[in-house]
From TrEMBL:
InterPro entries for this protein: CCT, Cyt_trans-like, Ect1/PCYT2, Rossmann-like_a/b/a_fold
Top-level lineage group: Eukaryota
EC number: 2.7.7.14
Name under which the protein is recorded: ethanolamine-phosphate cytidylyltransferase
Gene expressing this chain: pcyt2
């Protein structure tokens, strides 16, 4: 949604089919949608639904509404959020928040009874759409979590992986193009679009943190917000470990997201200035000197030793620039995976129900198109 004002852009002339996102398990696909939406105007207002609304229309959310509100606020292209936004977007809602138009993805969002949630605003020409980000969806991420092998990034075509994604993203009549799993292809352009492009300025405090930042979630946001508050003019650099390194110290099927996906997820956070892709595990002299780091922070989670058993933070400790940060949030990626596993059957039912509705709409659209073609041929 966009707030009206002196710089607001004109309303769209050609309404298009669109999608509503509940911002559950916020990932870089959501962030990319918001980045595109912000580029259409000057002030971006994002409506986020309650748990009750999502449960009614789609099924149980993974995150609570309070967690989702905070996650969306942390995305750097968002200017304001509306808590408890109605599931169906109406002209009344747009006018209430002084918005010129609303924006959504190029897929479709349906109510519990199969109706387009954006029908009214489309009819009135106050709807725009942006492109869906290929290669990521909640369906895909849930499938990866349940696939207890570290090969899910390189072996997504395996029958074992397909079995999980079919359970989560396939209705009784086949795959919907909006729910199915696709491959994510990283490009330098995408990184540029997400990056701030800002260099540290004289007087900035350069703060370095490192980790996996897998399934970027509210625990990470709370930690980075506290890191950001450690200085008056913070410049926060996040070092992301390569997938093999993360798997070495975390094991199981981690990381759930590969290094390219984790890069975009972290870059979308408003508290982050720069990302080091494939940062060394040990925070050594070369890294600290190269980035002129003033402060190194780590959360309350365990610090795993390096391959040789040494402390990866030995150098910043020696320099007296190491600080443990207590964000007050103990949520971990493990906890999120546990939520999914405990509610697996519910999530399977949720996604199958969603896809069945989408397939019904696709069939109706095909029938209408055939009827129109038949009518045109008859004339």
């Amino acid at each position: 949604m966009y707030k009206k004002g002196e710089h607001a852009k004109s309303t769209p002339k050609d309404p298009q089919p669109g999608q509503e996102a509940d911002y559950d398990m916020v990932h870089y696909g959501h962030s990319n949608q918001l980045r595109q939406a912000k580029a259409m105007g000057d002030f971006l207002i994002v409506g986020v639904h309650t748990d009750a609304e999502i449960s009614k229309h789609k099924g149980p959310p993974v995150f609570t509404q309070a967690e989702r509100y905070k996650m969306v606020r942390a995305i750097k292209w968002v200017d304001e959020i509306v808590e408890g936004a109605p599931y169906v977007t109406t002209l009344e809602t747009l006018d209430k928040y002084n918005c010129d138009f609303c924006v959504h993805g190029d897929d479709i969002t349906l109510t519990v009874d199969g109706k387009d949630t954006y029908a009214e605003v489309k009819r009135e020409g106050r709807y725009r759409e942006c492109k869906r980000t290929q290669g990521v969806s909640t369906t895909d991420l849930v499938g990866r979590m349940l696939l207890m092998t570290k090969a899910h990034h390189s072996n997504m075509v395996s029958s074992y992986y397909q079995q999980h994604t079919d359970n989560f993203g396939k209705g009784p009549k086949g795959h919907s193009p909006w729910t199915g799993v696709s491959q994510f292809l990283q490009t330098s352009q995408k990184i540029i679009q997400f990056a701030s492009g800002k260099e540290p300025q004289p007087g900035d405090t350069i703060i370095y943190v490192a980790g996996a930042f897998d399934l970027f979630h509210i625990g990470h946001v709370d930690f980075l917000e506290m890191v950001y508050k450690q200085a008056e003019r913070p410049y926060v650099i996040v070092g992301l470990h390569f997938d093999q390194e993360v798997n070495r110290y975390k094991g199981k099927n981690y990381p759930i997201m590969n290094i390219h996906e984790r890069t975009l997820s972290v870059l979308a956070c408003r508290y982050v200035s720069e990302v080091v892709i494939g940062a060394p595990y040990a925070v050594g002299k070369d890294l600290l000197d190269h980035f002129k780091v003033d402060l190194v922070c780590h959360g309350k989670t365990e610090v795993f030793p390096d391959k040789d058993g040494s402390d990866p933070y030995a150098e910043p400790r020696k320099r007296g620039i190491f600080r443990i940060i207590n964000s007050g949030n103990n949520l971990t990626t493990d906890d999120i995976v546990q939520r999914i596993i405990e509610n697996r059957l519910q999530f399977e039912a949720r996604n199958q129900k969603k896809e069945a509705k989408e397939m019904a709409v696709i069939e109706a659209m095909k029938r209408r198109e055939q009827q129109e073609q038949s009518g045109a041929a008859a004339q």
